[in-house]
Structures are given as C-alpha cells and as structure tokens.
Amino acid sequence: xxxTFAEKVLGKAAGESVSAGQVVIxxxxxxxxxxxxxPIWKTFKKIGVSKVWKxxxxxxxxxxxxxxxxxxxxxxxxxxxxxxxxxxxxxxxDVTSKGGVCHQIMCEEGFALPGLIMVGSDSHTCTYGAFxxxxxxxxxxxxxxxxxxxxxxxxxxxxxKITVTGKFSxxxxxxxxxLKVIGDIKADGxxxxxxxxxxxxxxxxxxxxRMTLCNMGIEMxxxxxxxxxxxxxxxxxxxxxxxxxxEAIWADDDxxxxxxxxxxxxxxxxxxxxxxxxxxxxxxxxxxxxxxHQAFLGSCTNARIEDLREAAAILKGKEIAVRTIVIxxxxxxxxxxxxxxxxxxxxxxxxxxxxxxxxPCMGNHEGILAPGETCISTANRNxxxxxxxxxxxxxxASPMTVAAxxxxxxxxxxxxxx
Amino acid sequence: MKITGKVWKYGNDVNTDVxxxxxxxxxxxxxxxxxxxxxxDLDQDFTKNAKPGDIIVxxxxxxxxxxxxxxxxxxxxxxxxxIIAKGFARIYYRNAxxxxxxxxxxPEAVEALEKGQEVTIDFDKSQVVTxxxxxxxxxxxxxxxxxxxxxxxxxxxxxxxxx
Lengths: 418, 163
Hints:
The complex is a heterodimer of chains A (418) and B (163). Chain A has helices at residues 5-14, 37-47, 71-87, 102-108, 140-149, 174-185, 200-204, 207-215, 231-237, 284-287, 305-315, 331-339, 342-349, 399-408, and strands at 23-26, 30-33, 58-61, 92-93, 117-120, 134-137, 152-155, 159-165, 194-198, 224-226, 259-264, 271-273, 281-283, 294-297, 323-326, 352-353, 374-377, 393-396. By secondary structure, chain A is α/β, with parallel strands linked by helices. In chain A, helix 2 (37-47) packs across helix 3 (71-87), helix 2 crosses helix 5 (140-149) and helix 6 (174-185) runs parallel beside helix 8 (207-215). The longest helix of chain A has 17 residues, at 71-87. The N and C termini of chain A lie far apart (48 Å). With 163 residues, chain B is of the alpha/beta class.
C-alpha cells in the first residue's frame, strides 16, 4: 500500500515509516516569523535558553505593518532588529527594497523547497506547498518552543486528493478554482488534513497559480497543501535554493486518501466569496451589480507579477470608478511591474500603488474600511472586521474580477471587459 | 479537575478575527489588556459582561483563520474556564493546549446547551454535565496530557530541557 505525501515527508523527517494518525517529533528546517518575531522572542526568553537552536534556520521578514504606522509598531520592529543582532540571524528582511510579503519572499528567495519541513508563525505558511514543501502555520508559543529545542510534534495527517483537469475559460483563474473548492467542502472541509493537488491542469499551472491554491489551504482547515515538485519547480529552485537539504518527494500512485475530489477547470466561472466567510461561494452572476467603495489588489494570495498583468490587461486605457489600492507582493514584483509598464497602466487608470507588504488585508493600515463600506479584494479572508471595521463588507475574488469591478464601481464579470 | 460555569453560546466557524481583531495584534501586547477585547467583533455583550469562570460553547471549526495566539490568550485572560465546541480549527487547538486553556470536543453537549445555562466539565471522568443530560468526550491523547499537566507548552519545554 502506497504512502501519501504527508506520510512520506514526515516519515523521512522522523527517520521511520509512518502512517496517518501517528504522532511524530521532527526538526523543522526553516522557521519563518514576521512582525510577530518580537512577541515570540518575549516568550522564548521565558524558557530560559540564551541562544536559538540554529540561527540559520530562522527567517524573519517584516511585512504586516511596514513602514511602521504607529509608535507601537515601530517599537515592535525595533525589538526584532535587536534580536537579529543579538542572535546573529542572517535571514532577515527589514523594511528595505529586498523585502515584501513574507510568504512571497520565502518562495522568491529559495527557502520554500521540496521535501522540507517548514513552519511559520502565520497561518498562510501553507503557501510553500506550491514548491513541494511540507509547510504549516503555528502559534507563537509553539514557535518559541521550536526556536529553543529545534523540535515540533505533528500528528501525521490524513490526506485529501484534489485532481484537476481541463483548461480555464477566459476570465477564470486559480483563485476561482480555490474559492469554488472551499465553497464546496466548506471552511472545515479539510480540517487537520494534508491537501494534495494532482492532475494535468496543476502541472500546466504557473508557480504563481499553485501558490494561490496552496495559500488558501488553511481556509478549508488544512494542515498543509501541496503540489507536485515537477520540473517547473526544480528549474525555479535549483539556482536559488538556500540549502541542499531538499528532496523531491511526492505521493505514491497507490496512496490511500480520506477523500478524493475532481475538478474540471473548463466548468468553472468567475466567482466571489461573499461576506463574512471564505466558503460563502457565489458565481459572479449572483452578485453582479453589488456596489463597492474600494478595490484591493494585493496580499500573499494574489499580488504576483502574473496577477498584476491580468489586472492591468483589464484596466489598460480605462479609468476606475472607485478607489483602488495596488500592493505588489514584493519589491522584485514591484520592479518587474514597473519595467513592464504596468504601473503606468495602474496610475493612468487612477489606482494608487503602495509599498510591498500586507497592507489593509488584516486591518492594520493603508486602506481600512468605513462603516457600511464594501471592498472587493484579491486577499484570502473576508471575516467580519478583517479590514478594520466590523460594519464593513469584504468580497474575495480574482485579480481579473477585482479589476473589472474597480472599473464599474460595482461587482462585475471580467468576461464582459476582456 | 471539575469546572462549572455559565454558558456563552455561538455558532459554527467562529474565526480568530472576530475573537481578537487584527487591528489590535501589534497595538495591544499586554496579555491582561487582551482580555478586554475578547470576542469584540462577535458579541459585544460578552466583551462587556463575561465573568471569570464562564464557559464558551461553540459549533464546528471554532478558531478558524489566523494563527494569532492572542485569540486564545484574550479568552484565557478574561478568566474563561474552558471552551466546549463541536470541533476546533487545528492551529487554535494547538494554541489552546499550548496556553493551557482547557478545550473539549463534545458535539452532543453543544446541542444540549443554551446561553446562560450552567454547565459542569468533569475532566477526570471526561464528561460534560448539562440539565439535559451527561455527555462523554474523548480525553486528550497521552502526549497532550503531559502538556496540560505541566501548564502549557512553555513550562513543558522548560521541564524537558531541565530548566
């Protein structure tokens, strides 16, 4: 009987053959923290260890509120810089043009690698599965414990196999697929599970599209989400890998799954997640015409160059009807967008472009909503109050749908403007 | 261990943003202060009136969303005795154990309980006692019991390192 990705990767890390349900203690390879590295440090100090277990395995990336919007945020950043200095951490991405959204940096900079066990003190750490890593989000205490001991326990998860075939129709993208999956199985549909994406359509997808899929694994409760470490992944990571410890690991053909789902991309249409849950799926036709006050093109889900290109193709030569905030996922993406002339398209249309970071996604700054306002967003969460005000509404959608909606000032079908 | 308290009842998929809003994650750092904001975007009645010893009862997937541990800390610092739910999102489940906040998965008890009623959780017998009956729940796995007995992950790690 074959093994799933999770059984193989956790078994390798634990040094024994394991099956779903077993508990293993493993050493995480990279431990990512963002602005919460400072409170984790405070917890770490309570343990009474003076040095982290392996300084080169810690990665700090400032992104949640950068540059600091308040003195409290500034003090938090300052404490992180002190920890970096004191512990001699070499993987630190400060508020400079080398940084960006933490998950984007982890992937762009060669930390996200096939077969590695990776943890992050952020729920969207599952993004690195796009590169074949076993990656998952953990809390602050758990991260402090990992820094001290270099160990973490996992229950080997059951796995869900999602096989994807077919081709996207015009105006439909990876975001529409993942919103449809979450709408079908609901916010707890993959609770505790490892979600594997299989099939020819996944192999045909860009790494950016795979990142969008894996990023939202947590929104269906998954422990991790993963795509095959195929040639596309290996060609990308080989020149930039931060360690040689990676290994391309994939599920056996005869692995046993708790659940199997099949999707044909050709049957999908543009869609949204309505307020206030990510599983509140609606095809575009159902919500078309809903007035909006803000559009947000950003976040770890959909702010890569491919996403900006898709939005720009719709905005080119036109003017937006509502305020539109564009935040590229990293400065590498920012520079590329500038080179390709996408910034001219956004600026001519009336959009504003902010520095790479999380922006308004979690209600810290750069686009908080007023009571009664509605935002259409490319991010991953539309929970009540998420963008800073509990009496506002958030619709989640693809970059194409967000761009089309920005043009009309109401939720719009991108197929009508492409 | 046995705890008794008054019920605050909620539905399915209560996420960490409504338990502890993201806008406070870097402006409120004192754990005691976090307690003042517990459930602010879910139920302001709770935020204003919850008393130490009260018990939260939730539906499936309690604590979905962000990994923010403050969503556990704020409830613990508010003095809430335990959370009984039909199920917990996995990061929240781990965070609660790591913070030493008792959590119980017992769908039958959730169905039986209403807001304002009294409920008793008997951890030694793994039972929830309500006015409509007594319901059993699966005790924590052995490796988790050690965590709970030590008072959470940090004391547990200290102990394991001999500190």
